[in-house]
Design a protein that fits this description.
By secondary structure, the protein is of the alpha/beta class. The protein has 10 helices and 10 strands. The strands form 2 sheets. The protein has a 6-stranded mixed beta sheet, with helices on both faces. Strands 2-1-4-5 form a 4-stranded antiparallel beta sheet, with helices on one face. The protein is globular.
């Protein structure tokens, strides 16, 4: 599938992080995880984040998504600054404007596919947009499976349910943390292509943390981290280019 022209079709930022630092603990025992990191994501783009273990990948995702507050610096999500928000306000923002896809599918076993997908809206006390639900279900290939429970689905199908749940709130950004880590190679590639499709055809913005150069090659660009700092960026990456860059960072 041909990728969109990023310059021609994307104009606004979905996410911006400005000189963000994060330290866990305080004083001499403080452990820096991010150091004055600045990045921005334009709407409708697919960005992968890579780096050696301990480079700050997960911390970047947590600060960007409002799961954690940076020690210093500023974060904007869809034009809204997260600094100064209370924990309740951050919770509401994550529920209404953020989508999450994790290695673990985090589905509720007693609920059907449809109930798992629509859970965020129901928890927020909002009516389910049936038209959007149909569009999302069709986009992720779950038509005809809405009455099935997680135990009746394959791992790849369960991850599709998790992706549909992330999309059904029309989030500013879908944050994917090692989304194929629990899948076999073939199923993992299908999930990566699905994320590529929702960027190209739905205009969704995706930020994915991964350790896999092949997974990163599905993205428009790869951001590399080392020791909590930006260590480079690669546009329109191939798996070989990503692996070579990671070798220079000491990962492989």
């Amino acid at each position: 599938m041909a990728r969109k022209s990023m310059a021609a079709e994307v104009s606004a930022e979905a996410l911006r992080m400005e000189t963000v630092s994060k330290t866990y603990g305080s004083g001499k025992r403080g452990v820096p995880a991010l150091s004055e990191l600045s990045i921005s994501l334009r709407r409708g783009t697919y960005t992968a984040v890579m780096g050696p273990s301990g480079s700050g990948k997960s911390t970047l995702l947590h600060c960007a998504a409002g799961l954690d507050a940076p020690t210093s610096g500023r974060v904007w999500l869809g034009g809204r600054e997260l600094s100064g928000l209370t924990e309740l306000q951050r919770t509401e923002l994550r529920r209404d404007r953020v989508g999450f896809v994790f290695q673990a599918y985090n589905l509720i076993g007693s609920l059907t596919t449809e109930q798992n997908i629509t859970l965020p809206a129901r928890l927020a006390g909002r009516p389910v947009d049936r038209d959007l639900l149909r569009q999302v279900v069709d986009a992720v290939g779950l038509t005809g499976r809405l009455d099935r429970r997680p135990s009746e689905l394959s791992g790849g199908q369960q991850q599709r349910v998790a992706i549909a749940r992330a999309l059904v709130t029309r989030p500013e950004v879908v944050f994917a943390d090692e989304p194929t880590g629990a899948l076999d190679t073939r199923t993992g590639r299908q999930v990566l292509q699905l994320l590529r499709t929702v960027v190209d055809e739905v205009g969704q913005t995706v930020l994915m943390v991964t350790h896999d150069p092949v997974a990163a090659s599905y993205a428009d660009s790869v951001v590399f981290l080392a020791d909590g700092r930006l260590a480079g960026e690669l546009a329109r990456p191939t798996a070989e280019q990503v692996a070579e860059r990671m070798t220079r960072l000491g990962e492989w």
